């Protein structure tokens, strides 16, 4: 069995063919797709977060709205860029969204990827301390968030408060019990995957990771997952960790699928640079008839190693088509692979 959800970047544009032409469209359609995915039996609705871009930014209003419209599906991010975040304010927003959803929030966080503007986090009021990088700053923000989500009081109360305080030091409110165990780190390398395991975060691994050997993408990603699990066991955490991978997978079952993706099956990985110093490997796109797709996916070692698969969806093609994409995998592919 495997949890299967979708991952949307929430793009909007006025380009020909786009059914998501405004920020309002992107937000409202994201809610509708989450509702549709739950009705189809999918397990998760996840959203990417980017700043200074025509795609989903601030995630918590969206997550809370989906939580109020659904009852079962997991609701999450993949990922929130911690370079931009005030961890205490984030803990308040996350606690509220988690309580609204009844404890279904799965919060993916990370250093983030290159953004639309240079050092965009500076416009949000953050900059690394002397001798630190922006990645160090992101990890520092993440560690503060984890500590605050633990629920222990840390703030000295006012001796003459407007409202009565509980005894002792105060914590940020609202606090949602159990959310600390539902924080995921989006790791691009074995080193950061190991770091996440040591801190007791779950692991998210994307369609691109740092290129750390000459092995194919899915095998490097499987080794990253194994390094994470080894570090988790060594750290002695009591609970079992979770691991997700994301993939672009399209089952060609009708003429629309063939028109959109019939020529998109990408048999090989791609190598590129996400910044001046970091070479990355990009995983292939799967697009084929269901019987072919099943055989291809059987060979993906990272999918086999993960407990959760996130299907990246082309959100600008509209809610109905994306629900069809999700349903095609759940109906025509997942049962044959033992995921359902």
Describe how the helices and strands are arranged.
Layout: E1 3-8, H1 23-40, E2 44-47, H2 60-69, E3 74-81, H3 87-101, E4 105-110, H4 134-149, E5 183-186, H5 190-198, E6 202-205, E7 208-210, H6 217-235, E8 243-247, E9 249-251, H7 255-261, E10 270-273, E11 279-282, E12 286-288, H8 290-298, H9 301-305, E13 308-312, H10 319-333
Parallel strand pairs: 1-2, 1-13, 2-3, 3-4, 4-5, 5-6, 6-8, 8-13, 9-12
Antiparallel strand pairs: 7-11, 10-11
Provide structural commentary.
With 340 residues, the protein is α/β, with parallel strands linked by helices. The protein is 36% helix and 17% strand. It has ten helices and 13 strands. It has helices spanning 23-40, 60-69, 87-101, 134-149, 190-198, 217-235, 255-261, 290-298, 301-305, 319-333; strands at 3-8, 44-47, 74-81, 105-110, 183-186, 202-205, 208-210, 243-247, 249-251, 270-273, 279-282, 286-288, 308-312. The strands form three sheets. Strands 1-2-3-4-5-6-8-13 form an eight-stranded parallel beta barrel, surrounded by six helices. Strand 10 and strand 11 form a beta hairpin. Helix 1 runs parallel beside helix 2 and helix 2 (60-69) runs parallel beside helix 3 (87-101). The radius of gyration is 20 Å and the shape is globular. It starts with a strand and ends in a 7-residue tail after the last helix. The mean pLDDT is 95.
